[in-house]
Amino acid sequence: MSSDDETSNTDDESSNDKEMDTLFFSMVQWTQYATIRCAQEWREIRNDREYSSKDWIINILDGHEDRCYDSYRMSTTNFNILCDILKEKGLTARGDVIIEEQVAMFLEILGRGHTMKTVGEEFQHSIETVWRHFRQVLSCVLQLYSTYIRLPDPSKPRHRKLAEGTQHHAFKDALGAIDGTHILAYPDGDDPCPELFRNRKGFNSQNVMAAVDFDGYFVAVVTGWEGSTHVNLILQRAVEDGFIVPPGRYYLVDGGYANTRQFLSPYREKTFGILKSRFKVCVYMRKYKFKIQKDIIKACCILHNFIKRLNHLQNVSDEGLFGRVSENRGPSNEDEEAEDLGAGDSQTGNDLRESIKNILWNNRQF
Fold first, then answer.
1. Between 46 and 183, the higher pLDDT residue
2. What are the structural domain ranges in the chain?
3. Region Disordered: which residues (predicted)?
4. Bigger pLDDT: 192 or 45?
5. pTM beyond 0.85
């Protein structure tokens, strides 16, 4: 083959390479254009309402009060106060999504148990947008934990329900009650022991423990324990982590806990039933990362106290608006067999319970 032929072949190959490069570059450009255009068309189709999500929220807040309770689980006044507080904690408007809209989406997910997709359809946003704002609001709400959930101050006077002369005076040294519940849970895919989440009734749950005072406020919340964990272990770890019971005082607990001087059984609390009736996510938890599931429960307890405190200041009550839900969807912690924590401690608890029983008997009215 002559050198002219070789040169000609080389030129042809170079020309073909350039054509392939040009074709490939054109395909990339058209693919990018098609992707962007499809996204634009999707948004145009999705955002096809005659009114904006901002108008939708204003319509609810300016409408009948029951609409705000139904959608956001609180009064319009409390909703606006919550938005102001979260703004102080760093919640900001992002793009065209105002603070009120972010909070509204968050409360729809917690209160009505809606999925991100359902909320996205209602507010005309993508799932990614709803998820991003949900996490931002959740982070700000969790900053309120120490403000709204605190252990009772033992130096303060006894609760009025335990005052001398009342039928409950025998429990004058009680600080409140401890309750537990199983909430549907989804362990992470990389969890080394997902089987630990399966409780005695056969479904995956997290075993949540909370202490409440005699007004129904949460004073401590412990989340994240697998459904198979015994309540006494959860309580023991909570004490080790700072859940302090002052000398001479105690909490009332249900029959699943061992009877001791600091934790007197059996007594069943009902606060989780109220929480689940207001925040349906506590009944129908969605498949988030497990850390998010734990944080959601804490956020619900924070908002419970927030609403209850404001309602008290406004002299209103709304707990009957949401119906009632069984306080334990699934097994009750009261059904668990109490573990022996030591004969001495248990006997002290039994002696205390016996003395209270005698006081109640002596003060009986026929």
1. 183
2. 53-143, 155-362
3. 324-350
4. 192
5. no
Which of 19 and 287 is assigned the larger pLDDT? 287
Peptide linkage before 194 cis (omega within 30 of 0): no
- Parallel, antiparallel, or unpaired for β 250-252 and 263-264? parallel
User: Which residue matches tokens 């998010």?
Assistant: 292
Strands of the sheet containing 263-264, edge to edge, are 218-226, 205-212, 174-184, 250-252, 263-264
What percent of the residues of the chain are helix, what percent strand, and what percent coil, each to the nearest 5? 55, 10, 35
Q: What angle do CA 106, 110, 116 make, to 5 degrees?
A: 60
DSSP, collapsed to helix, strand or coil, labels residue 251 as strand
Residues near 261 by Cβ (< 8 Å), separated by ≥ 6? 250, 345, 348, 349, 352
Residue pair 191/185 in contact by the 8 Å Cβ criterion: no
3-class state of residue 113 by DSSP? coil
CA neighbours closer than 13 Å in the CB half-sphere of residue 54: 6
Q: Which two tokens stand for residue 77?
A: 């006044």
Q: How many CB atoms lie within 10 A of CB 320?
A: 9
Q: Which two tokens stand for residue 213?
A: 């005072």
Beta bridge partners of residue 180, listed in sequence order: 209
Other Cβ atoms within 10 Å of 234 Cβ, number: 21
Beta bridge partners of 220: 211
Which among 304, 321, 311, 71 has a CA at the least distance from the CA of 63?
Answer: 71
Q: Measured between alpha carbons, how far is 240 from 221 in angstroms, rounded to an integer?
A: 14
Residue in 285, 206, 214 with CA at minimum distance from that of residue 251: 214
Mean pLDDT of 101-112: 97
**Which are the contacts of 348, defined by CB distance < 8 A and separation ≥ 6?**
260, 261
Question: CA–CA separation, 74 vs 322, rounded Å?
Answer: 10
Per the structure block, which two tokens stand in for 156?
């303060």
Q: pLDDT at position 54, please? A: 84
Q: For residue 35, what pLDDT is reported? A: 60
Question: For residue 252, what are the β-bridge partners?
Answer: 177, 264
Question: Which token pair is 164?
Answer: 């001398």
Q: Within 13 Å, how many C-alpha atoms sit on residue 20's CB side?
A: 6
Q: Which of 156, 150, 152, 175 is nearest to 302 (CA)?
A: 150
